[in-house]
Design goal:
Blueprint: E1 2-9, H1 13-24, E2 29-32, H2 40-44, E3 51-54, E4 62-63, H3 71-76, H4 79-88, E5 93-95, E6 100-103, H5 108-120, E7 124-126, E8 131-136, E9 142-146, E10 149-158, H6 173-180, E11 185-191, E12 195-196, H7 199-206, E13 212-219, E14 226-234, E15 238-240, H8 242-248, E16 257-260, H9 267-274, H10 282-287, H11 292-302, H12 314-325, E17 327-329, E18 333-334, E19 342-347, E20 365-367, E21 375-376, H13 381-396
Parallel strand pairs: 1-2, 1-10, 2-7, 10-20
Antiparallel strand pairs: 3-6, 4-21, 5-6, 8-9, 9-10, 11-19, 12-15, 12-18, 13-14, 13-16, 14-15, 16-17
Helix pairs in contact: 1-5, 1-13, 9-12
Bound molecules: dihydroflavine-adenine dinucleotide.
């Protein structure tokens, strides 16, 4: 049976980073992944250019049942640290809006960089290789039952990510192993995902598919309240676009989302100010304040299409403005893991030591990356968590 100091299961963002650093610290490391192509999620991320971090990746941009947990790892490995690694490998990058950093060329550069870092650490690869079970043998460490025979390791790192996009090999492996070993799980759900509506309720809006608009969007109360100003996109089944992906991470089934379709502009006030002496139709005025298709559809539904602004009572204009500024709707669900960018929930962070990600109940077992209940906003935050949690773990192994 082959034997190692550390077995890292999952050769994605967190797993490769952790294996590389642990190997470079002199540990004998094996990195195991069941996929036939390396790091598929990095490859497809950021539209093929990998939004690998965000300049403002502070703890406030992460959701967790235990929000303080991510603080220490994020403070010890920052976006600047990752940029230093890119500089070492001469990888060009640029900033898009809101601190989002992307590769100039392709996300392949990040995969190649991590592969080379693993090589520098003398990491042994088992890939494609499926792990059926992780057996904890107390003082003797762990035995992994793989389809290439058993592997013995003194320490095991679960880095198999979340369940988003099962079509490229995502699984609930980390959650299953954690559960079997008696650890608590925060209920996993698709996040950064489009929201859907019953076909019946959505019929009126389906014609707006393709319309995009900057909005203020909000949901929830107290600790689980989220609010963003981003673009929203109407689709045939519901709502998507960055605004909706962001708010989906905060949305609880049965709860409404609140959308200001004019992103902070008081529409009733704008319509009432435009009214005196106006010869224009309301359609023309409203289409100056939001996408024409959206304005026309909304007015048709409200029975106001084709009316002259000056002929409409103030009460009707106030009602119209309010309805557009405070559109409330209850999604019937999400587009699911097939369309989600991440999984929220995961291994309860109260089960882990925040210094090194080691399981409190199972010494020698570690969990990092998306498998852990730390979920970032859209915009490079999830990779920053993968790098930071991997680094905290690798330095503590
Ligand atoms: P990751 O998913 O990267 O790796 C897990 C690895 O474990 C995989 O290689 C998988 O094959 C392997 N595995 C799973 N089950 C296994 C098993 N049973 N046995 C062996 N191996 C197993 N984030 C961001 O910050 N910026 C971005 O631009 C994007 N863009 C983006 C686009 C799309 C379409 C998606 C789906 C996701 C993103 N993300 C993102 C999210 C980001 O990709 C994600 O959070 C990280 O890849 C998580 O890193 P991990 O290493 O935890 O898991």
């Amino acid at each position: 049976m082959s034997s190692f100091d550390v077995a890292v299961i999952g050769a994605g963002a967190a797993g490769m980073m952790c294996a590389a650093v642990a190997g470079q610290r002199g540990l004998r490391v094996v990195l195991i992944d069941h996929a036939s192509r390396l790091a598929e999620k990095i490859r497809i991320s950021g539209g093929g250019r990998c939004n690998f971090t965000n300049r403002d990746a502070g703890p406030a941009a992460f959701l967790s049942a235990n929000p303080a947990f991510c603080r220490s790892a994020l403070a010890r490995y920052t976006p600047q640290d990752f940029l230093r690694l890119l500089a070492k490998h001469r990888i060009g990058w640029h900033e898009k809006h809101r601190g989002q950093l992307f590769c100039d060329d392709s996300s392949e550069a990040i995969i190649e960089m991590l592969r080379r870092e693993c090589e520098a650490g003398g990491v042994a690869w088992r890939m494609p290789c499926a792990v059926a079970r992780v057996r904890c043998e107390g003082e003797a460490g762990f035995v992994l039952d793989t389809d290439h025979g058993p592997v013995r390791a003194a320490r095991v790192v679960l880095a198999t990510g979340g369940m988003a996009v099962p079509q490229i090999g995502a699984t609930d492996f980390a959650l299953r192993v954690a559960r079997e070993l008696g650890m608590k799980i925060i209920e996993p759900r698709p996040a950064l995902v489009p929201l859907t509506f019953d076909a019946e309720n959505w019929r009126a809006y389906a014609a707006l598919a393709g319309v995009a608009q900057e909005v203020d969007i909000a949901t929830g109360k107290g600790k689980m309240a989220g609010r963003f100003r981003e673009d929203l996109l109407f689709t045939h089944r519901g709502l998507s676009g960055p605004a909706v992906l962001q708010i989906s991470s905060y949305w609880q089934p049965g709860e409404p989302i609140r959308v200001d379709l004019a992103a902070g502009q008081d529409l009733a006030d704008a319509l009432l100010r435009a009214k005196p002496g106006s010869r224009q139709q309301i359609d023309t005025v409203l289409a100056g304040l939001m996408p024409r298709r959206l304005a026309e559809q909304w007015l048709a539904d409200a029975g106001l299409a084709g009316k002259r602004l000056a002929d409409l009572p103030d009460k009707a204009l106030r009602g119209l403005g309010l309805a557009l500024n405070e559109w409330q709707l209850v999604p019937s669900g999400t587009a699911g893991y097939k369309k989600a960018e991440v999984m929220r929930g995961g291994i309860d962070t109260r089960e882990l030591n925040q210094q090194d990600m080691q399981a409190r109940r199972v010494p020698g077992l570690y969990a990092i990356g998306e498998a852990v209940d730390v979920t970032g906003w859209l915009g490079g935050y999830n990779f920053q968590w993968a790098w930071a949690s991997a680094m905290a773990c690798a330095l503590g192994l």
